[in-house]
Amino acid sequence: MVDLKGQYEHIKEQVNTSVLDVIESTAFINGPEVQEFQKELEAYLGVKHVIPCANGTDALQIAMMGLGLQPGDEVITADFTFAATVEVIALLQLTPVLVDVDPVNFNVDIEAIKKAITPKTKAIVPVHLFGLAANMDAIMELAKEHNLYVIEDNAQGIGANYTSKDGTKIKTGGIGHVGSTSFFPSKNLGCYGDGGAIFTNDDELAHTLRGIVNHGMYVRYHHDVVGVNSRLDSIQAAVLRAKLPHLDAYNAARRNAARKYSQAFNGVEGIIVPTGFCDTGNCICDVCDCHVFHQYTLRITQADRDALVKHLNEHDIPCGVYYPIPLHLQKAYADDRYNEADFSVTNQLVKEVISLPMHTELDDEQIDFITETVIKFVSK
Ligand SMILES: *Cc1c(COP(=O)(O)O)cnc(C)c1O
How far, in Å, from the CA of 154 to the mean position of ligand 1? Predict the structure, then answer.
């Protein structure tokens, strides 16, 4: 699904030198590399504060802790996403409220959010799923109207540009009150282990978050709030510093591969290609950068999706099903409050979706082989 080795070959010298420098310096925790990376990511994202932490799940949890959400507060998020999002809501004894997604962009459905808002609702967590920016204009408007926090789960969307109604472009993760991301190796900006970060433009919240990630300490050995131990290793920061300057090129390579996939699938019955959004329909144009294709995900509407997975595996083509089970049907998160009729899109998508190999090193020959194999199977 990903080719981390191929990507490493291109940046090997710099990564090796930087990592060795960290080892020589022995500044393993919160060393200068972490601070430099923080500044460089702030500049890249155009966000005032980046707070590095240990992983993307912690980033979400710490964001919610920093906002002071209380047990029983309701937090709305998508039924169709990775479990980390709902996991931290439940862990903090907040009440997860899962809602359906949009069949075209796979992101949280705005009408479903509206229906789910109650007097107890305190926050919305949009996920920029598969790398495509959620409809942030509508979400921020709803949040303002109902006095809610917006926490962007940007684990899959780093580098994506959201174009708002007035035409301004802004990087995802810096639009809501707080945002989070993951540097898990296979993410668009991945390190060589675990890593994550929280983003905010709010000075006071940033200060709170910096304490929470470090045992609730603002002054050494003075613990003002309950915190956690969640820090980004200096070695991981060194890897990320080597990769960040390439992020736009990496994302462009992903979009380029996505465009080739979609061109090959164009007009094939029984395959729905992912939308590129941009409010112009199915655009995966050269200039459009609102989708960074963390995953390239098809809907297989006529053939048997599971049989296709098996067929691709038999032809040594990796593929993935993200996600096979809606969160509201997972044992840990099932709840009598939920009504099946409210999840018709997610219930359908879990049967149809398949993600093809997507990374920065895909070449034309690989794409041709993959698309031909898929098309042959679907059309038979
Ligand atoms: C990967 C991911 C996370 C969690 O990140 P980790 O670094 O693995 O903890 C959270 N949300 C989404 C949508 C993700 O894809």
Answer: 9
List the domain boundaries for the chain: 4-99+106-245, 246-379
CA of 5 to the centre of ligand 1 (A): 21
Token look-up 């996991």 returns: 87
3-state secondary structure of 148: coil
The DSSP element (H or E) to which 218 belongs, if any, is strand 217-219
CATH 3.90.1150.10 fits 246-379, yes or no: yes
Rounded to a whole number of angstroms, the CA Rg of the chain reads 21
| Phi, psi dihedrals of residue 136, rounded to the nearest 5° | -70, -30
Are the C-beta atoms of 113 and 98 separated by less than 8 Å? no
Atom of ligand 1 nearest to the CA of 182: 7
> Which contiguous run of DSSP H or E holds residue 170?
strand 169-171
- Write the pLDDT tens digit of every residue in 318-352: 999 999 999 999 999 999 999 999 999 999 999 99
pTM of the predicted model as reported, rounded to 2 decimal places? 0.96
Range 4-99+106-245 classified under CATH 3.40.640.10: yes
